[in-house]
Amino acid sequence: GGSEKSRNKMNLFRHTASVVHPVLAVPRSPILLAHGLMGFDTMSLGLIALDYWRGVKKHLEGAGATVYISRVPPTSGIDTRAKILHNTVQEIYQKHQQRVNIVAHSMGGLDSRYAISMLDAHKEIGSLTTIGTPHRGTAFADWSWTIPGSRVLEAILRTSGIRTEAFFQLTTTHLAEFNKTVVDHDNVRYYSIGCAKARNEIRLSFRIPYDIILREEGQNDGLVSVLSSQWGYFFNMYEADHLDQIGWTRRWDCLQMYSDISGFLAQQGH
After folding, report:
1. Is 103 left (phi over 0), alpha (psi -120 to 50) or beta?
2. Is the pLDDT of residue 57 over 90?
3. In this model, does residue 2 exceed pLDDT 50?
4. Taking burial as the number of CB atoms within 10 A of a residue's CB, which of 13, 46, 161, 214 is the most buried?
5. pLDDT score for 20
């Protein structure tokens, strides 16, 4: 028995092994990795090529999965990002004639939900698995808009040609309205993963948002609370921060998590 909160606590440090286990099963249908805010597929920095999903595509493909990576405008609004994501989904569907399994990080989960519900992408998407997605917004986004000068900064960014819609769309107020309009579709299976870390384990750049979210929403990954990340069937929780989830660390191996997701999708018949 026990409460859901106590079960979550027991679950929190379940996957901490540094050894990556092989992917035991892969879904029959293609996987599309959908990135979050400020995301990309691969970025070139001089001679260095930087992947958003570090090692994930190669890891899953090595086990026999068909994997694609989306690319949407990094800071545009959800509706704009969702249209471009939907175009990618349609291309994959037309090529394979199989409904796509989206595995989305952070804001990518909101783009995907919008595409499914508002753009009829439910015809081409079989499942959506979200990792660290702020389905109910984040207290840090709320706080960011209260800082003196935040509106001035927004105006400067807009004048510079940088889109800023995404930042406001992550507030708890906006997401409350979003969730009333963007309703889950019966044709799609929704799964989610949450992450959290102890404060002394969180990277320094996340300490301020971590404390703000901890006070307002409870345990979190430095940008998104466990509570906000739950959507559909919440099937696992990991000890990781928001960037650990896509492999931006040497302290935690995210590939175990993607092995788990792949096996879970296969088990569910996708």
Report:
1. beta
2. yes
3. no
4. 214
5. 52
